[in-house]
């Protein structure tokens, strides 16, 4: 497919004098699934957050569906409506039922009627396999179920693009599979997806392309079998070997992320 759904050109982002993104160029075609991998602190979350302007780039341009997000005159709310975002933390409202969590943003942001919002909520809960949890409260659900609710909440907004920032990193291992299965289904349905993940088997099987970032730059990108299977760069090999070594992987997961996940309240 030739249409670029996401286009990032020479993207730079600094926090004070810490340059976190040092010139990122990336295009994601409509229907393409791109997995972004790389060590903690390499700028993956910042890249994702620059795509929907949760962070304001300090240089370069970002386009989503042909609209320049970095245009000072852009209607950013209109752009964000087309972008679904799923974080490591699910950010569900604990005092609202699952249905309430799905209908609230539809009504507030899209102005849908109560009936329409409820119908679309039910459709998307069914999509993620949680139709029977419509009236449950988040606190009664497993982490994996809560994350699937968060995905359904994003889908209910009818996005053209879905961004995932380590969606399974906070989950107990036995709950990861159900979330990845939902993401795989979305990929099969042709959703354009940008996924930051440490799940290499998911990246291998589902991604059209894998991007390896380190130190604020894209070190290499290509087909999963190439980047994960036969990495061209020493930094990629080093990262992958650490991921496969559980002792070192703990170090990887444990080093805190500076960005704070999500813009909404907990
Ligand atoms: N809001 C922020 N303020 C200051 N520094 C930040 C902020 N967000 C991220 N950083 C810094 O940017 C770097 C990259 O962070 P991040 O994009 O979260 O990396 P990754 O997602 O790859 O772990 C880190 O050094 C982090 O501390
Ligand atoms: Mg991150």
Mean pLDDT: 92
Bound molecules: adenosine-5'-diphosphate, magnesium ion
Distance linking N and C termini: 38 Å
Biggest β-sheet: strands ordered side by side in the sheet:
6-7-8-3-9-10
**Total beta strands:** 10
Shape: globular
How much is the radius of gyration in Å?
Answer: 18 Å
Level of helix content? 25-40%
Sheet with the most strands? 6 strands, mixed
How many H/I helices?
10
- β-strand percent reads 15-25%
Classification by helices and strands: alpha/beta
Secondary-structure element series: EEEHEEHEHHHEHEHEEHHH
Structural overview:
Keywords: Amino-acid transport, ATP-binding, Cell membrane, Membrane, Nucleotide-binding, Transport. The protein has 266 residues and is α/β, with parallel strands linked by helices. The protein has a domain at 92-159. Helices cover 39% and strands 24% of the residues. It has 10 helices and 10 strands. The strands form 2 sheets. The protein has a 6-stranded mixed sheet, sandwiched between helices. It has a 4-stranded antiparallel sheet with strand order 2-1-4-5, covered by helices on one side. A hairpin with a 2-residue loop joins strand 9 and strand 10 (217-222). Helix 3 (98-110) crosses helix 4 (114-127). The longest helix has 16 residues, at 173-188. The termini are far apart. The structure holds adenosine-5'-diphosphate and magnesium ion. Residues 15, 20, 38, 40-46, 257-259 line the site of adenosine-5'-diphosphate.
């Amino acid at each position: 497919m030739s249409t670029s759904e996401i286009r990032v050109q020479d993207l730079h982002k600094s926090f004070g004098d810490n340059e976190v993104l040092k010139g990122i160029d990336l295009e994601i075609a409509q229907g393409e699934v791109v997995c972004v991998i790389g060590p903690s602190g390499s700028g993956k979350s910042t890249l994702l957050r620059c795509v929907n302007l949760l962070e304001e780039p300090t240089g370069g341009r970002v386009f989503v569906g042909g609209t320049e997000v970095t245009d000072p005159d852009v209607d950013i709310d209109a752009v964000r409506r087309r972008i679904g975002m799923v974080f490591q933390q699910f950010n569900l409202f604990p005092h609202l039922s699952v249905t309430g969590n799905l209908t609230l943003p539809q009504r507030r942001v899209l102005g849908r009627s109560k009936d329409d919002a409820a119908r679309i909520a039910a459709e998307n809960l069914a999509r993620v396999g949680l139709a029977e949890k419509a009236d449950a409260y988040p606190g009664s659900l497993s982490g994996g179920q809560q994350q699937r609710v968060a995905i359904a909440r994003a889908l209910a907004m009818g996005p053209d693009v879905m961004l995932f920032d380590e969606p399974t990193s906070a989950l107990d291992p036995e709950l990861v599979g159900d979330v990845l299965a939902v993401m795989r289904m979305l990929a099969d349905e042709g959703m354009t997806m940008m996924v930051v993940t440490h799940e290499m088997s998911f990246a291998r099987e589902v991604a059209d392309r894998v991007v390896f970032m380190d130190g604020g730059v894209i070190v290499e990108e290509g087909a999963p079998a190439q980047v994960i299977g036969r990495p061209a760069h020493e930094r990629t090999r080093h990262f992958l070997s650490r991921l496969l070594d559980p002792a070192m992987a703990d170090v990887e997961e444990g080093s805190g992320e500076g960005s704070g996940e999500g813009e909404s309240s907990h």
